[in-house]
Amino acid sequence: MTPLPYGAVVASLDEECGRAEEALRSLDDDDLGRPTRCPAWDVRGLTGHLIRDVDRIVAYLEAPAPDPPADTDAIAYFRGFDPVAAAPGVARRSMETAAAFATLDDLADGFARIRRDAVRAATVAGPDRLIAVSWGQRLAMADYVPTRVVEMTVHGLDLQRRAGRQAELVTQWLGDDDSSRAVD
Q1: 127 burial via Cβ count (<10 Å: 0-12, 13-18, 19+)
Q2: pTM for the full model?
Q3: CA distance 134 to 171
Q4: Which residue, 12, 130, 8, 140, is CA-closest to 73?
């Protein structure tokens, strides 16, 4: 399969964020404490994780670019991450992020703002801008943004299911001509 142009990847991120935001806005404040399929998070915590997933774009781009060359691509990014060791810290930071928002509307509005900021920052930075992630890998935005699409897709599906919606994702990643595909 031919890789998507960078602009299409950024657009996919924006679309997956939009699906998650729609699902979030279909809930009410009582839903924030309800469990998700991610054992560490209720709806509030899962949304905090989604916020952090896209906010990392802005945070990493605010730091000076590391010295070239990149040492990681989109696939190796996930191989360099130890989910078992990192899970407690990821869960804690997600809950801390979410706790900064008092209501569901505040949380949804915060996610929408961060989404816009991240999409804008990724677009302005361009595909060749190098970043260094928190565990030291250096990669180009052309490789980092797809990792955010994966995160947003996987956890966005969790949020869509919690909201009782037909879970959908962007299928450009699947090589399909349709704009979305329902998943079971």
Answers
A1: middle
A2: 0.89
A3: 30
A4: 140
CA separation for the pair 54, 44 (Å, rounded): 16
User: Which secondary structure element, helix H or strand E, spans residue 61, and what is its range?
Assistant: helix 43-62
Phi, psi of 139 (to 5 degrees): -150, 160
Does 104 map to a domain? yes
Specify the amino acid at residue 98: A
Which CATH number is 105's domain given?
Answer: 1.20.120.450
Number of structural domains found in the chain: 1
- Structural domain boundaries enclosing 109: 6-182
1 inside domain: no
Asked if residue 140 belongs to a domain, the reply is yes
Which of 62, 82, 55, 58 has its CA nearest to residue 137?
82
Residues of the chain with pLDDT under 70: 1-2, 169-184
State the residue for tokens 């699947």: 174
Phi, psi of 64 (to 5 degrees): -60, 145
**119 lies in a domain?**
yes
Going by C-alpha positions, the residue among 148, 171, 167 that lies closest to residue 22 is 167
Residues 59-84: pLDDT tens digits?
999 999 999 999 999 999 988 778 88
